[in-house]
Design brief:
Radius of gyration: 52 Å
Mean pLDDT: 75
Low-confidence stretches: none
Order of helices and strands: HH
Structural class: mainly alpha
Number of strands: 0
Strand content: under 5%
């Protein structure tokens, strides 16, 4: 009888260990599933991070190009403004020269020489005094 009991106890023990082993396999399967899910989540996060970095890089490049275009446009506008200032300065210089000539004419009564100043000034006063 003892050997039968030992046999029965052995079978029961073997079944218990077998069931426990199956439970451990199921736990390992669940652990593997969780590990795979974590790996997939990490891979997806890495891909999203790479996409975000690429988008940020493209946006920075576009902003850089816009800034360069803006600087070129500002340079062109500054050049046009400088041309206008030069033209206005030239007009002001001409007006000042005319005003100077008019002032000289008003003071001396003589007409000012042309701006190239190649003609000598008139001397009406000597002719009128010399005739006396």
């Amino acid at each position: 009888m003892t050997s039968r009991r030992i046999g029965t106890i052995g079978v029961a023990l073997a079944l218990s260990l077998g069931l426990a082993g199956l439970g451990a396999c199921q736990r390992e399967g669940t652990g593997e599933k969780a590990g795979k899910a974590m790996d997939e989540a990490a891979a997806a996060a890495q891909q999203k991070a790479q996409e975000a970095a690429k988008s940020a890089s493209e946006a920075a490049e576009a902003a850089k190009q816009k800034a360069a275009e803006g600087a070129q446009s500002a340079g062109e506008m500054a050049g046009q403004a400088a041309e206008k200032v030069g033209e206005e300065a030239q007009k002001a210089g001409e007006a000042a020269q005319q005003a100077g000539e008019q002032a000289k004419e008003a003071v001396t009564g003589e007409k000012a020489a042309p701006s190239d100043q190649s003609a000598p000034p008139k001397q009406d006063s000597e002719e009128s005094n010399g005739g006396e």
